[in-house]
Amino acid sequence: MTQAAHAAPDLAPPPTLEVRGGRKNFGAVHALRGVDLVARAGEVTALVGDNGAGKSTMIKCVAGIYPFDAGEVLFEGEATHISSPADANALGVEVVYQDLALCDNLDIVHNMFLGRELKKGFRLDESAMETRAAEVLASLSVRTVRSIRQHVASLSGGQRQTVAIARAVLWNSKLVILDEPTAALGVAQTEQVLQLVRRLADAGLAVVLVSHNMNDVFEVADSINVLYLGQTAAQVRTKDTSRTEVIELITSGSAGMAPGAVAPKISPDAPERATSATATTSDATTTNGSTSA
Ligand SMILES: Nc1ncnc2c1ncn2[C@@H]1O[C@H](COP(=O)(O)OP(=O)(O)OP(=O)(O)O)[C@@H](O)[C@H]1O
Ligand SMILES: [Mg+2]
Fold first, then answer.
1. Where is the composition biased (Low complexity) (predicted)?
2. pTM of the full predicted structure?
3. Regarding beta strands 175-179 and 123-124, do their DSSP bridges make them parallel or antiparallel, or are they unpaired?
């Protein structure tokens, strides 16, 4: 039971993931200058922003590849430090990277269990892995692969994405982060992957979807988090916003949002963000950037 649940048992459960004021520097490069994110179970949270806004850095920090230099991370309401991929996996965080990291010369089952193979004595437990892989694919209503013993090299882009997503949900995950899962896909395959993304959330997982594609975002996301020059410009409910407003947030860091969701313009060269103006108590929250420049 979390502190938040003790304090207010009648409120909604805490978000699966909450990042408050996350910062990350690479030497002199301030890649993240104050990012806030709320990802709830049962919801797809889109993470959007222009090239270089900090999306990949943010998910790598959550995945423990580069720990945040500063800021707070709460997982299911509990403050936590994710300082390695093993920490992230132990919490139930799985990331599907854009390059997928699948092995072409292995079949679907072996790819799904790559690095975490099931063993029986000294041998691989092929039948247990096959059964489990088939169960997970069936639970995700994946019907487009002919055989789970098919080599991944023979799969289409959408099918490869499906295998990578299924691999992520195989490990009792609670939070699945997908980096541009539809970037290289055609229309029909994009639709299949988006349906799969939706099913992950409907199955109770928290899903973070990194995307440049507004069609995808508005089709599948419950909530949209916009990064602008390493800062969170706003996180808004999809039903309360519009494409025009989200695009404005992406390009300028501010927009004439719905009442209660106004994000003042963030100065591109603002060195610091005004922490007093930060509030991340709900996912209809905006984060103000410093305008001191
Ligand atoms: N390992 C690194 N070393 C130095 N700078 C980095 C490193 N990784 C990212 N950056 C810088 O951090 C900033 C954010 O990069 P990031 O890759 O997170 O952006 P992004 O939002 O994912 O962009 P895109 O949409 O192009 O994928 C950029 O200015 C980038 O050059
Ligand atoms: Mg990126």
1. 274-293
2. 0.80
3. unpaired
